[in-house]
Amino acid sequence: MENYQSLCFLCSLLLLCFFTSTDSSSAAGASTTTTQRCHPQDKAALLQIKQGFGNPRTLRTWTPETDCCTSWFLVGCDQTNNRVDFLKVLYSHHVTGQLSPAIGDLTYLQILAFSKLPNVTGTIPQTISKLKNLQFIDIDETGFGGPFPDVLSQMTSLTTLYLPGNKFTGPLPTSLVQLPNFGEINLSQNRFTGTIPEVYGSFKNLVGVSLAGNQLTGTIPKSFRHANFSSFTLTNNKLTGDASFLIENPNLSEIQLAHNSFSFDLSKVKVNSIVQQFDISRNKIFGTIPKSLTETSLQVFNVSYNELCGEIPVGGNLQGYFDETSYSHNKCLCGAPLPIACP
Question: What pTM did the predictor assign?
């Protein structure tokens, strides 16, 4: 009997420990849930974005039970207010579908990047204009397309816009000039057509512009003569006319004009000493290579496939730094590094 009572007491104790442990675990779980940093609005928006992208395994850490600030891959939160301020989805064929309009609910977002997502299609949702804190956008090598989303011009905090390697069409947007803090724009490798807007020479704080690899036509606007930016890339378009005034812009250190149909006399151009990248290959440029190029610290240089003549100036990096491929296929260039002696 005594043994039986002892056994009953032991069973009761074990049951008490079990239920106490269960209650504690439940309380701990509830505490974990209530102390998650992730804001409910941000979590709901991100889960809709995941669904719009086909619930890919790339985003498998995005689950309703976990904290988006501490456990979700490719998401970051501000340490002060615990709101999502960083979203970057990269390098995945598994991400498909379209970007959900819920992107506009991430109202504290500052950095947005969708890179190398070839199976993401459609247009950028209009709701993105709600992201008043967004400073940096990088959407490259995706299936996004259609006309340029003019709503981006409403995002007054935007400083950097990278949209290379997509399928955007139509004319280049002029509304971006309204952005007060805009510093860099890359619209290369899309399907933009028409001419370069005159107002692009009026950007106040712009550092770099890349419009390479589109189907742009016409001439470079004269407003670029005194443009403030330091880097300008127009490679692989269908541009024509005189670009000499652009080369003489005192602010430009990187000039990329290759694979167009520019035609002007290079001998009359005074190249600024700050120029470090100078590629005018595969055009219809004539004359001689100006001696002012010997006064630069060139890192990139190519004048091949033009109609240049005369002796290559000696000095700077023109001989020792660049080989004959930088000068080949011209009309009558001679001198080192070409194997053609001057008469």
Answer: 0.86
